Amino acid sequence: MNQLLNKTRGDKVIWTLVVILALMSLLVVYSSTGSLAYKMYKGNTEVYLFKQVAFISIGIMLIYFFHMVNYTIYSKVSQVLFWLVIPLLLYTLFFGVKLNEGSRWIRLPIINLTFQTSDLAKLALFMYISRLLSKKQDTIKDFRKGFVPVIVPVAVTCALIAPANLSTALLVGATSMLLLFIGRVSGKHLVLTGLVAMIPVVMLVLAAVYQHSNGNGIKSKSENRSRLTARVSTWVNRVETFMYGGAGEDNDDNYQVNQAKIAIAKGGLMGLGPGNSEQRNFLPHPYSDFIYAIIIEEYGIVGGAVVMFVYLIFLFRSIQLFRKCPYAFGAFLALALSFTLVIQAMANMAVNVNLFPVTGVTLPLVSMGGSSFLFTCIAIGIILSVSRYVEKNANDGEEEPVNVEAANG
């Protein structure tokens, strides 16, 4: 064990934050799945706890393995991985496992496990555009030579993710725009892209307004509707629920939001205490999408603020890493992966406190384990790989500020 710890490198603060979130995950997942485990496994309430311990153990191993890999290798890997992800997303869209009228997963043969392809797509995309940004700094202001080669992969990835998972597509798009802005892409090109991207969002809002004013929402669960039509109906209903409060308790999204509000109200300032959640028995998905509401119910607003603060420290340390990394690829890669994790966390929290329409995004490293949990661990491992290189440079006395003009990778 000591030998393993001696080989562990990278930002110690980020390692500490990972441990804090993992411990919080164990506590809250165990609490939020107690009733479900009792019903599903005839009184054995520890089943999901043991599963989460297994996921965390595998996740820590993934972080350790990927942090030991020289981060420049990810630049080469991205060239292959990104182009493999595109047909994978297409396959998922048409032949993936269908759940809630959307295809987000594919089932792996032999082991019979499912994983969400958008998680792999995010990782591949951010590695790929980090490489492109580092390579094209000399021509990045040029529309044809600099902007188009960078924005096309983002647009294609978001377009393939959106039909089944609009919230993830929006988060990927927002993270990409932030990264392009930091990568010195022309402001007028970004503004134009933002205006184009806002068109479908505005159309959704207008559709929700029209649906509410006419009282003729497409809320039926007809089996004859196409997947895309069903998903559009779901998006419109969610926006309508967020804007107007939905159609009472019969509306699934309205029910979830109301139960989350009750959980937060019961938590108050200091919470009901670990394991004392009452709304876990009523709140759908208290161990994933709405786990933040359970955190506030059990640990109060103070506990919720601590969790938010942990993610903000994580972002701050990643920004410091960006400033210290001497090569553009590593700097962009660390920043992109940290942005996507923190933005996802903030989106999950916003949904739980009703500041954002209901989505399917989880709370990174806290929600119950799945493919999203493991890909989050891989992303953190890559960030720590960059940190390990910066740390080595600092120890060798070669540290210098990031040079975004340099082409690396």
UniProtKB/TrEMBL annotation:
Keyword check for Transmembrane helix: yes
Keywords, comma-separated and alphabetical: Cell cycle, Cell division, Cell shape, Glycosyltransferase, Membrane, Peptidoglycan synthesis, Transferase, Transmembrane, Transmembrane helix
Domain of life from the UniProt record: Bacteria
Subcellular location: Membrane
Enzyme superclass (EC): transferase
Any GO BP: cell division
Chain segments annotated as transmembrane: 12-32, 53-74, 80-97, 150-183, 190-210, 290-315, 327-351, 363-384
Catalytic activities: [GlcNAc-(1->4)-Mur2Ac(oyl-L-Ala-gamma-D-Glu-L-Lys-D-Ala-D-Ala)](n)-di-trans,octa-cis-undecaprenyl diphosphate + beta-D-GlcNAc-(1->4)-Mur2Ac(oyl-L-Ala-gamma-D-Glu-L-Lys-D-Ala-D-Ala)-di-trans,octa-cis-undecaprenyl diphosphate = [GlcNAc-(1->4)-Mur2Ac(oyl-L-Ala-gamma-D-Glu-L-Lys-D-Ala-D-Ala)](n+1)-di-trans,octa-cis-undecaprenyl diphosphate + di-trans,octa-cis-undecaprenyl diphosphate + H(+)
Membrane topology: Multi-pass membrane protein
Catalytic activity, EC: 2.4.99.28
UniProt keyword Metal-binding, yes or no: no
Family (UniProt): Belongs to the SEDS family. FtsW subfamily.
Protein name: Probable peptidoglycan glycosyltransferase FtsW
Species assigned in the record: Flavihumibacter stibioxidans
